[in-house]
Design goal:
Elements (H helix, E strand, L loop, with lengths): L6 E7 L6 H9 L6 E8 L5 H12 L2 E5 L6 H12 L6 E5 L4 E2 L3 H10 L7 E5 L2 E3 L5 E4 L9 H4 L11 E3 H7 L10 H12 L1 E5 L4 E4 L12 H13 L3 H16 L5 H12 L4 H10 L7 H12 L4
Parallel strand pairs: 1-2, 1-4, 2-3, 6-10, 7-11
Antiparallel strand pairs: 4-9, 5-11, 6-9, 7-8
Helix pairs in contact: 1-2, 8-12, 9-10, 11-12
């Protein structure tokens, strides 16, 4: 089944002309066969469109072009791609315009999900090799020491979109509804599939994750830098509220379908925020967690302070 599995790559683009050719070339070099590419451009006004047009003519990729009036931003662009994905595809994968995929990336992901029941939602994700704009390696993203789970997905994202592969059951689940507030499309997918299905995390990196200073979302160069970045975002600009808004959107769309334990966890996280005693009780209960110990303690402190 793995060799003949149909994979649809969903690529969201916006003013990505500088690095896009390298990504497209790496898509063409995938060792897994039966790959189709669907691209939605979010109103680019640089040299992106001619690059996409040439790629489409060469490969048969499906191009969904919108002008500036139809611009939806990074999250909306990917959610629109999920809506447009072919229901006959066995799997769908996300692609970012500035990365480079190693040749075995899709084959490795398909092999991992093919071991699981096809009728249960499943999401594959994995580690990243961090590179600079010239593809010089600077290390690897950390492994999730405590593993993926719904308890983790409520408060942290460990599933980077460009590493993801979703099976058909996960696609159907996600199409139940789109959030009015999501921190990131990949975090939303991790949260939803963790609640109802299976997450597979691959410790072997299969993608060069280019950090060039203009990424929509990036990673810090060290564990301390990543932690301090999270803390700064949550101390200012309403980022803590964003976590709650994402949780509320999840409860509205998926809450009625949750198992009792997951529903109780979600309700406790969202409904304990209003009063100090409730926040103290929730923060000390350990119902949810982040992967790194320092990050976990920072979350508990911020929650207790009412900043999350």
């Amino acid at each position: 089944m793995t060799a003949g599995a149909k994979v649809e790559v969903l690529l969201a683009t916006y003013n990505g002309a500088r690095f896009l050719p390298a990504l497209l070339d790496s898509l063409e070099r995938q060792e897994h066969g039966h790959v189709a590419v669907t691209i939605r451009d979010d109103g680019s006004d640089d040299g992106t469109l001619p690059i996409l047009d040439a790629f489409g003519r060469r490969t048969g990729a499906r191009l969904l072009m919108v002008g500036a009036a139809g611009r939806r931003g990074a999250n909306g662009n990917f959610f629109a791609l999920l809506d447009a994905a072919n229901c006959a595809s066995d799997y769908v994968a996300f692609a970012d315009q500035d990365d480079v995929w190693l040749p075995a990336k899709l084959g490795r992901a398909v092999a991992a999900l093919a071991r699981l029941p096809a009728d249960r939602p499943a999401l594959y994700c994995g580690r990243l090799a961090i590179v600079d704009r010239d593809l010089h390696r600077h290390g690897l993203t950390p492994l999730p020491a405590r593993g993926p789970s719904f308890a983790n997905a409520l408060v942290e994202n460990i599933a980077t979109g460009c590493t993801m592969l979703l099976n058909r059951a996960a696609l159907r689940l996600l199409r139940r509804g789109w959030p009015e507030a999501a921190i990131a499309h990949d975090w939303w997918c991790y949260l939803v599939v963790a609640a109802f299905g299976r997450i597979v995390y691959d410790p072997e990196p299969a993608i060069l994750y280019r950090q060039h200073g203009e990424n929509a979302i990036g990673v810090g160069a060290s564990p301390l830098a990543r932690l301090m970045g999270k803390v700064r975002r949550q101390l200012g600009g309403g980022s803590g509220d964003a976590l709650a808004r994402q949780g509320e959107a999840f409860r509205r769309i998926h809450g009625p379908y949750l198992a009792a334990a997951e529903r109780a966890m979600l309700d406790a996280f969202l409904d304990s925020r209003g009063h100090l005693v409730d926040r103290l009780r929730f923060a000390s209960a350990g119902l949810v967690y982040r992967q790194a110990a320092l990050d976990d303690w920072a979350f508990r402190l911020l929650y207790l302070m009412g900043r999350i």
